[in-house]
């Protein structure tokens, strides 16, 4: 098929590998292939280095960490899935135990490798296999550590009318330190959300002991005139000591308030102006603060934090040090937090370093320093005083409040970091136990292995993968669903937000999301805005901040240089759009350029442009990038379009979309469902499940294809070869398609000929009318694979057995079972059929002496066991495509083992014989060079066959690992081929979803003038109010593409214009006209006859330029009154199939508490008849129906048994009894001491006996 790309703006770089964020994060965590001494202090290495060394109470024993190494995984990925196992690596940690002698010398006691359990390993497609299920660890977006400044939520102000601000020093792990003002302008600090203390007390505890020292740090003065009105001089404090000009003595001490008498006194002395403090907050706080020494301050803080009256001095001093300043274990800013603090306060640090000799903290300093506290306080005071910037030397920073939704203040925690945090928790719990063991054990025979107990460590990893909110069961409906699940960003989860408490601001689109987070793709419902998706070109930097690429512009000329910018860096620049017109040399052509600065769109001259967008697609995510003409759709519908593409079921016959956006191939490739050649070479063998390529180096590469695998959502994973024998392939070429792909492109649906018109009300309200031809051609047919499992367990009496010998089952029910009682592969099964025959012992019964005698005479009877077979549940039917049996080694008898060995041997011998026969045939007609290639090819094939034979033999020898008390597990896989049917949900890519309301015979469908019936009829009313006009442009371009046999590629925001679409519609019409002319000429028409026939054809059969054409009713053959819009739309079948939803119940399970039927299809429940439904029946006055609903059909236990009985016997239905809910009401009233009794009409109440 030809391709036409309408894109005008090519991106200078390709989007990064779409799974890069996940893969890089896990590789950084594991550092598997890095030599032990070269590992960075992050991930596993970082956790071990932070927790170790561990010492006992007198520090005589020290357990040091040396390094770690990994073993090999026990099972492959495929085996792990089949066996319900976890795909993991054994972790071995080398620990060294040292003995410190009293003279300070160290002696090594022992160094050992300790097994630390298994760490789940990421597969090539960035998933984890936990207990046989594929899971994804979603990245979390959370508040970055650092210092943030915010205004009081209630917008309160001080006595002087200044806003109340507060500063928060937020670490990654540890106690928060918060500074705040009260109404009087006094500065307080709160440590770890405890009671507030004066900020000056905190400063004293840090070593700034005297009042002068503290005042000097924050002293800034301004001159005021003493002639100013007294109101202007109120609340001003003298900045420095004032000396008498004549005598030199101090008249006024620094810090005195300028009251009226003081002003008069200074005026008398000849002063016209005086230096006052710019801000007196610290001075006021000092006056209020009763504490005057460091020792008192430390004790006071200890008292507040520990709420203890009795204080030990050295413990108090050590406590604060340990809490904030010393231990990374207790307080960790991380490199990100430190980077943010240094970036925010750069010039302020310089100022204190220059004027007060305070140190600037190093980049790798992860705990708090006293300088951080001083700098934060300085910034807070500047903010309080309304200053807007701070300058020191050449550096200037803006002073202002922080926006917590700004992506400069939020960062991404990916798999590696989340897992590292869990491992840290596990190690801390383990460290406690190790210290206890160290104190209790004898030092002579202690070893690292005897000290370490890994139970907590292993449990923590299991808990994270099994139960964490961020470890999710993978959405595997189709390749796009897999890919977007791995690129998802969640604000929920541990340490994140709570969906009930998250407000509107957090969920809203923020200007910093541009190019970083997709503004469209997010769920509808309670999680809207909290779960988002990474934009196409975005990447996460080592600090966890999201970056997006921009093209550098210098002096109005776009260069080839691409810079990745974080959100806070981008705020400093003016960024032009990607479609800014450029000449051949890259110069900006227009006089004023439209672009973004901070949060607004403005016009600037070309010389003021700093950067340019790299591509119009960089704003949105991959899912949104697959919607053609997205720019013509309303955002709400585009959101639905994104989410519904993820629900498209992989179809049996796939079709590439005729109108695409050009990233379909990238999605298919990066999702990992297609197979890609690893090197250049030639295809030497192709079969349904294997491709062999001889590379140029002479090696033969084998690619195994996955056939009829089951996904997490029961859709079918099937790979098919795209190459044939003898093809020459290049490295990176797609050689096999996966599910929902075609020729290496994502293909989720079918190209249908659609018409927008009403049709007898069958497409009212989003319903759809389909043609029967779609079913005949299998165009919306999908394969669904279900797994059923039977377990034979050890029970109290005797074990359950899997057998063909089942009590009370007729021979016709056993037809599909083999001699072991397991269904044969290839059998067609439906509801109620036996899949696995199983018997279980009956409960213990009392037997009579006669029965015991009969048993002794005739052996035990079959009634000892009951039928516990696995049967096909209701609503399921299909073909058995596979059976797998797992047996515990000791439960396999010698006879069975030999039989299995024989079977494996027979299969191997047959396959080997076939290979040799094929080889002989191929060698017969080959020349010398071909012969050597054939020899090496068949040698590889035999080698592979032998390996699989050995693996099977080994598996039989070892037996299978099964859960406790399970002797045997049988898994049966049933494939069902589901055709489209009435009730299925279909959707386009523009959020235009609908349910199939009727499937019409082909002959009744509306048809085009040339007799072609349309495939689908949609309602025209679905477009105006929904404003997803993209679908109309799609069907017009799609029609042109179909007629011209061309795939139209129209990238998002850079696609085909209306004029271009009309041009291609005209080209398609011209082609049809030419073909018609040729066919008419071939039957001998000439001259006027020919011209008239062509004119009639053009008038009646060709569509107008906006694709409107006269349609004819298939039932009557008459033309419809108006012309109808007809074109080709790409339609998907979604995973909401009526087959899975259809459900009916006569009787079934009841709730134990309320005695009402259970709800839902899974419980085989009933339909809830709720309060509003009762009102509806009351409205009709249908009393008997209502009584029936509320009693026998609900919770009248006796009544429903009688009712069922009388229906079976064909008798008249008895009166309903008392429902259970009424009894509950009566009992509740009794609990309130109200005795309620039910009386018949005849009976009269008994009179109360008087005492």
From TrEMBL:
This is DNA-directed RNA polymerase subunit beta. The RNAP catalytic core consists of 2 alpha, 1 beta, 1 beta' and 1 omega subunit. When a sigma factor is associated with the core the holoenzyme is formed, which can initiate transcription. Residues 677-1163 form the DNA-directed RNA polymerase subunit 2 hybrid-binding domain. Gene3D superfamilies: 2.40.50.100, 2.40.50.150, 3.90.1100.10, DNA-directed RNA polymerase, beta subunit, external 1 domain, DNA-directed RNA polymerase, subunit 2, domain 6, RNA polymerase alpha subunit dimerisation domain, RNA polymerase Rpb2, domain 2. Residues 550-615 form the DNA-directed RNA polymerase beta subunit external domain. Belongs to the RNA polymerase beta chain family. Pfam families: RNA_pol_Rpb2_1, RNA_pol_Rpb2_2, RNA_pol_Rpb2_3, RNA_pol_Rpb2_45, RNA_pol_Rpb2_6, RNA_pol_Rpb2_7. DNA-dependent RNA polymerase catalyzes the transcription of DNA into RNA using the four ribonucleoside triphosphates as substrates. Residues 18-453 form the RNA polymerase beta subunit protrusion domain. Residues 143-220, 277-413, 472-540, 1165-1240 form the RNA polymerase Rpb2 domain. It comes from Endomicrobium proavitum. InterPro entries: DNA-dir_RNA_pol_bsu_ext_1_sf, DNA-dir_RNA_pol_bsu_external_1, DNA-dir_RNA_pol_su2, DNA-dir_RNAP_su2_dom, DNA-dir_RNAP_su2_hyb_sf, RNA_pol_bsu_bac, RNA_pol_bsu_CS, RNA_pol_bsu_protrusion. It catalyses: RNA(n) + a ribonucleoside 5'-triphosphate = RNA(n+1) + diphosphate. PANTHER family: DNA-DIRECTED RNA POLYMERASE I SUBUNIT 2 (PTHR20856). Its EC number is 2.7.7.6. GO terms for molecular function: DNA binding; DNA-directed RNA polymerase activity; ribonucleoside binding. Keywords: DNA-directed RNA polymerase, Nucleotidyltransferase, Transcription, Transferase. GO terms for biological process: DNA-templated transcription. It comes from the Bacteria. GO terms for cellular component: DNA-directed RNA polymerase complex.
């Amino acid at each position: 098929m030809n391709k036409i790309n309408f894109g005008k703006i090519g991106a200078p770089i390709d989007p990064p590998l779409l799974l890069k964020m996940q893969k890089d994060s896990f590789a950084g965590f594991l550092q598997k292939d890095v030599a032990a001494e070269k590992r960075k202090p992050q991930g596993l290495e970082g956790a071990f280095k932070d927790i170790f060394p561990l010492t006992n109470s007198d520090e005589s024993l020290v357990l040091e960490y040396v390094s770690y190494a990994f073993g090999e995984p026990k099972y492959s990925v495929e085996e792990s899935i089949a066996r319900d196992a976890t795909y993991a690596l054994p972790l071995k940690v080398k620990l060294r135990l040292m003995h410190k002698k009293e003279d300070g010398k160290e002696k090594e006691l022992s160094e050992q490798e300790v097994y630390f359990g298994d760490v789940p390993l990421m597969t090539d497609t960035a998933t984890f296999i936990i207990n046989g299920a594929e899971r994804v660890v979603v990245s979390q977006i959370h508040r970055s550590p650092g210092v943030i400044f915010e205004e009081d939520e209630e917008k309160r102000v001080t006595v002087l009318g200044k806003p109340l601000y507060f500063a928060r020093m937020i670490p990654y792990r540890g106690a928060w330190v918060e500074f705040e003002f009260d109404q009087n302008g006094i500065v307080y600090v709160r440590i770890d959300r405890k009671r507030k203390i004066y900020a000056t007390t905190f400063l004293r505890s840090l070593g700034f002991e005297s009042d002068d020292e503290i005042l000097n740090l924050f002293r800034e003065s301004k001159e005021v005139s003493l002639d100013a009105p007294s109101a202007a001089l109120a609340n001003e404090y003298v900045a420095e000591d004032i000396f008498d000009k004549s005598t030199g003595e101090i008249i006024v001490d620094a810090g005195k308030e300028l009251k009226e008498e003081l002003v008069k006194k200074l005026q008398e002395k000849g002063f016209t102006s005086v230096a006052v403090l710019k801000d007196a907050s610290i001075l006021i706080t000092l006056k209020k603060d009763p504490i005057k020494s460091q020792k008192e301050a430390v004790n006071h803080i200890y008292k507040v934090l520990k709420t203890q009256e009795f204080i030990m001095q050295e413990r108090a001093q050590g406590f604060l040090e340990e809490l904030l300043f010393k231990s990374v274990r207790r307080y960790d800013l991380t490199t990100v937090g430190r980077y943010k603090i240094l970036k925010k306060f750069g010039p302020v640090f310089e100022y204190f370093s220059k004027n007060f000799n305070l140190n600037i903290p190093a980049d790798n300093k992860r705990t708090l320093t006293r300088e951080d506290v001083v700098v934060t306080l300085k910034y807070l005071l500047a903010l309080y005083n309304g200053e807007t910037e701070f300058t020191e030397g050449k550096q200037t920073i803006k002073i202002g409040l922080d926006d917590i939704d700004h992506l400069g203040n939020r960062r991404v925690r990916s798999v590696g970091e989340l897992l590292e945090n869990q491992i840290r928790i596990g190690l801390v719990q383990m460290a406690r136990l190790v210290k206890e063991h160290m104190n209790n054990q004898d030092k002579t025979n202690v070893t690292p292995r005897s000290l370490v107990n890994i139970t907590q460590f292993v449990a923590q990893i299991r808990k994270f993968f099994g139960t964490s909110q961020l470890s999710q069961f993978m959405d595997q409906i189709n390749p796009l669903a897999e890919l977007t699940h791995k690129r998802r960003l969640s604000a929920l989860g541990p340490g994140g937000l709570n969906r009930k408490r998250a407000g509107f601001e957090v969920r809203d689109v923020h200007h910093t999301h541009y190019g970083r987070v997709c503004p469209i793709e997010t769920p509808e419902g309670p999680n809207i805005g909290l779960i988002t998706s990474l934009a196409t070109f975005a990447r996460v930097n080592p600090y966890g901040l999201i970056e997006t690429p921009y093209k550098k512009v210098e002096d109005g000329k776009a260069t080839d240089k691409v810079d990745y910018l974080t959100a806070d860096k981008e705020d400093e620049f003016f960024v032009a759009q990607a479609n800014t017109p450029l000449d051949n040399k890259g110069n900006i052509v227009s006089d004023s350029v439209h672009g973004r600065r901070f949060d607004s769109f403005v016009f600037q001259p070309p010389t003021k442009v700093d950067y340019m967008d790299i591509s119009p697609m960089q704003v949105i995510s991959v899912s949104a990038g697959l919607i053609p003409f997205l720019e013509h759709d309303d955002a709400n519908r585009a959101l639905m379009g994104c989410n519904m593409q993820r629900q498209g079921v992989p179809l049996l016959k796939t079709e590439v979309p005729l109108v695409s956006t050009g990233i379909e191939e990238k999605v298919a490739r990066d999702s990992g469902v297609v197979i890609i050649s690893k090197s250049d070479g030639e295809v030497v063998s192709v079969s349904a499940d294997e491709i062999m390529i001889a590379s140029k180096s002479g090696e033969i590469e084998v690619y195994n294809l996955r056939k009829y695998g089951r996904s997490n959502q029961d859709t079918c994973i099937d790979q098919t070869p795209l190459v044939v024998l003898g093809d020459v392939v290049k490295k990176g070429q797609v050689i096999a398609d996966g599910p929902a792909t075609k020729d290496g492109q994502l293909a989720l649906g079918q190209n249908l000929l659609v018409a927008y018109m009403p049709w007898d009300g069958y497409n009212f309200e989003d319903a759809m009318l389909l043609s029967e031809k779609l079913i005949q051609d299998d165009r919306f047919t999908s394969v669904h694979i279900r797994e059923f499992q039977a377990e034979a367990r050890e029970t109290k009496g005797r074990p359950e057995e899997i057998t063909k010998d089942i009590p009370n089952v007729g021979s016709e029910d056993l037809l599909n079972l083999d001699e072991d009682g397991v269904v044969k592969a290839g059998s067609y099964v439906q509801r109620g059929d036996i899949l696995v025959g199983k018997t279980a012992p009956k409960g213990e019964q009392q037997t009579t002496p006669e029965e015991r005698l009969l048993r002794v005479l005739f052996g035990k009877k079959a009634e000892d066991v009951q039928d516990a077979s696995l049967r096909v549940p209701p609503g399921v039917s299909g073909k058995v495509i596979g059976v797998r049996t797992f047996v515990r080694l000791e439960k396999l008898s010698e006879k069975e083992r030999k039989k299995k060995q024989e079977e494996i041997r027979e299969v191997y011998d047959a396959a080997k014989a076939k290979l040799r026969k094929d080889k002989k045939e191929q060698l017969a007609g080959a020349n010398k060079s071909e012969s050597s290639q054939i020899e090496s090819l068949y040698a590889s094939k035999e080698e592979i066959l032998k390996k699989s034979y050995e693996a099977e033999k080994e598996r039989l020898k070892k037996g299978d690992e099964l859960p406790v008390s399970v002797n045997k597990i049988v898994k049966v896989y049933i494939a069902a081929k589901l055709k489209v049917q009435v009730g299925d949900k279909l959707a386009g890519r523009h959020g235009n979803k609908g349910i199939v309301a009727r499937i019409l015979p082909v002959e009744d469908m509306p048809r085009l003038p040339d007799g072609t019936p349309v495939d689908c009829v949609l309602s025209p009313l679905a477009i105006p109010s929904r404003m997803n006009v993209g679908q109309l442009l799609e069907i017009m371009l799609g029609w042109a593409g179909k007629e011209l046999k061309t795939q139209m590629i129209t990238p998002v925001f850079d696609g085909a214009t209306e004029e271009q679409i009309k041009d291609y519609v005209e080209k398609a019409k011209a082609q049809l006209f030419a073909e018609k002319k040729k066919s008419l000429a071939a039957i001998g028409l000439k001259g006027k006859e020919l011209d008239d026939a062509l004119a009639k054809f053009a008038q009646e059969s060709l569509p107008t330029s906006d694709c409107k054409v006269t349609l004819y009713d298939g039932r009557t053959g008459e033309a419809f009154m108006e012309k109808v819009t007809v074109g080709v739309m790409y339609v998907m079948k979604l995973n909401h199939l009526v087959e899975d939803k259809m459900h009916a119940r006569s009787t079934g399970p009841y709730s134990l508490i309320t005695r009402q039927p259970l709800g839902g299809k899974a419980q085989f429940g009933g339909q809830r008849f709720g309060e509003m439904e009762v009102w509806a029946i009351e409205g009709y006055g249908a009393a008997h129906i209502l009584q029936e609903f509320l009693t026998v059909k609900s919770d009248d236990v006796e009544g429903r048994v009688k009712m069922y009985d009388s229906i079976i016997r064909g008798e008249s239905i008895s009166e309903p009894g008392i429902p259970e809910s009424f009894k509950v009401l009566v009992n509740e009233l009794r609990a309130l001491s109200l005795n309620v009794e039910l009386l018949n009409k005849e009976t009269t109440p008994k009179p109360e006996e008087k005492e």
